[in-house]
C-alpha cells in the first residue's frame, strides 16, 4: 500500500474501531517500513508490527495487574500466574493435560528469570520481560498449530509442551534414587556422560545451593538448579549462559582463566577423548588454538568479557567441558561436508 492507501485505512479503522488505532498510522510509522520502487510498503510486516505492539501492550497490562508490590517486578509465582492465564489462548498449549499445567508454568517461568533476573534476586523486571526474546518465543506458540511445527522446532522452543516434557523426563531419568534431587554421580549421566567430572564438580561449587538441614540431600541439585543448568548448556552463546559457565571454568574465582586453568579443564576432555578411541591430542596445541580463537585483551589471561566479545565463547566453553562439544569443533569441516548434500 502507498501512503494514500495508508491514510485511507487509518480513516476506516478510526471509524470502525475508534481513535486509539490512529497511533499506528502516523507518518513516522509509515517511514519505518521498507518501500518498493513505487514508494509502497508491504502489508504483512505492518500487520505483524501492529499485532506485536498490541500483544506487548496487553502483556504489560496483564503483568502489572499481577504485580502485587506494584514495583515493576514479578516474583516467580506471579510470572507463573501470567503464563497460566495465557495457556487457553495458545494453540499449542490449550490442550495440555490438567495435571501438568503447574509443572509447565514452573518450567516456563524459570527461563524468564534466567534471562531477566541476572542477579538472582527472585524478581524479574517487567520491562526486561517485555523486551526479552523469551516473551516472543512464548507468543510463537499462538501463531501456528502443532501440525505445522516440526518435532525439532518444538524441542528447540523451551516453551513448547514437547520441551517441557523432555526436561521433566530428563530429570526423572537422572534421579535414580527418586529423591527429588540429583547427586554429582547422577548428574554425570547427563548428555550420555559426555560432560567432564571437573565441570560437574564446579557446577556444584558455584550453582548448587547448600541445604540448611545438613541431611544426605543437602548438597544435591534441586529441580530449579537443574533448570538453570540445562538453560546454560542450551544457551551457551548468550551472555547469561556464558556467564553461568564462566563461573564454573574460573577454577580459582579470580575473574580470569590462565593457561594452567585451560590445561586443567581440558585434561578431563582429553581423557574422555582417548577413551572414546580417538587419535592422540596435544593439550598445548588445543590451549594455543583457544587463545587464537579468543584473542584476549591481556595475552596472559582470558576474561568473561573476552569470551563475549570474541563471539566464539560458547564454542570455547563446549571444548572445555564436553568431549562431544570438542568433537563437534574438531570435526567442523567434516560436519559441513556431510550437511552439504542434504542442503542441495
From TrEMBL:
GO biological process: cortical cytoskeleton organization; microtubule cytoskeleton organization; regulation of dephosphorylation
Top-level division of the source organism's lineage: Eukaryota
TM regions (residue ranges): none
Pfam families linked: EF-hand_5
Alphabetical UniProt keywords: Calcium, Cytoplasm
Keyword Cytoplasm annotated: yes
A cellular-component GO term for this protein: spindle
InterPro entries assigned to the protein according to its UniProt record, in alphabetical order: EF-hand-dom_pair, EF_Hand_1_Ca_BS, EF_hand_dom, PPP2R3C
GO molecular function ontology, one term from the record: calcium ion binding
Domain EF-hand: 54-89, 162-197
Location in the cell: Cytoplasm
PANTHER family noted in UniProt: SERINE/THREONINE-PROTEIN PHOSPHATASE 2A REGULATORY SUBUNIT B'' SUBUNIT GAMMA, SERINE_THREONINE-PROTEIN PHOSPHATASE 2A REGULATORY SUBUNIT B'' SUBUNIT GAMMA
Name assigned to this protein: EF-hand domain-containing protein
Species for this entry: Rubroshorea leprosula
Organism lineage string: Eukaryota, Viridiplantae, Streptophyta, Embryophyta, Tracheophyta
